[in-house]
Automatic annotation (TrEMBL):
Signal peptide: none annotated. Pfam families: Prenyltransf. One of its GO terms (molecular function) is ditrans,polycis-polyprenyl diphosphate synthase [(2E,6E)-farnesyl diphosphate specific] activity. This is Undecaprenyl diphosphate synthase. InterPro entries: UPP_synth-like, UPP_synth-like_sf. Transmembrane segments: none annotated. GO terms for biological process: polyprenol biosynthetic process. Keywords: Transferase. It comes from Haloarcula quadrata. The keyword Lipoprotein does not apply.
Amino acid sequence: MGFTGAVSIPADVGLYDRYLATRVRRSDADLPETVALVITERDLLGDGAYRTLERFFDWAVQYGTDTVVVYVSVLDEEAIPTLQRELESVTAPREIAVRVPDDETTADAPIQISIGLGGQSEFATAVQKLAEDVDTGSLDPSDIDEAAVEEHLVFPTDPDLVIKTGAERLSDFMIWQSVYSELYFTDVNWQNFRLRDYLRALRDYQERQRRFGR
């Protein structure tokens, strides 16, 4: 079923954006229920970077997304506390859960933000927890399946659509969760990301036939 919700287009949005919005709205194809955004620490250093992120959250909600996941790759670990403080203070239409590498609490909010928590590390930690359960006798090895692994992930959400700005590389992004995700790469850098770029990603998603590994 296609998207049937009402979308308010700001008066200052151009004709091309309105055209894309109409295409998205009138399509019979589904829109993603869960959208993931992959950006870098450097992307958040530019002027207006956090305001762009706030707009991104608004766009996602307006176009029917239930869950938004933001993955911020980090080169300098000393930047993590500053990033965490800034990201926890952004304005968003729904509750935000921010997680850093040493925080293993499951992120269950509608907007989930990972700062420097790589997919390999997250998966390894989940496996360690399963091994501990087996060692204590609370889990039988034969009972370990996909659901058991997902119970121990910090970010248990499987994205329908993953958007990566600036380059065609996901690095260490949500290795387990994104195995069947649709990937959308754009050459547009984060500081230049606009509504039309988000709408292009949605249109690309609508035009695909999802196979989920089949």
